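Sharing a chain and its predicted structure for anyone who wants a worked example. Both blocks are below, sequence first, tokens second.
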Amino acid sequence: MPNTKSAKKRLRQDKVRRSRNRSVKSALRTQIKKIHTAVEAGDMDTAEKEFSVAAVKLDKAGSSKVIHKNTAARYKSRLQKKLKAAKSA
């Protein structure tokens, strides 16, 4: 447990940031899962719409340092690759 006033404030701030980051990460995982299910179902229109939403969420998460920028870019690249392969197949 924190003893000093500044440590107590830091603990409060960390709780708020942690809950905010967890909600952003959860929303990202859900969005990515929507793309995967749409691709597996063969619904390319839905998959493309979900990808555009996911790309924005990934960029925001990367810019606000919830996840690393390169991680966001990697996710986007892999999703785009999966969409492209599903279109050609």
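Comments welcome. The two ends are 57 Å apart (CA to CA).
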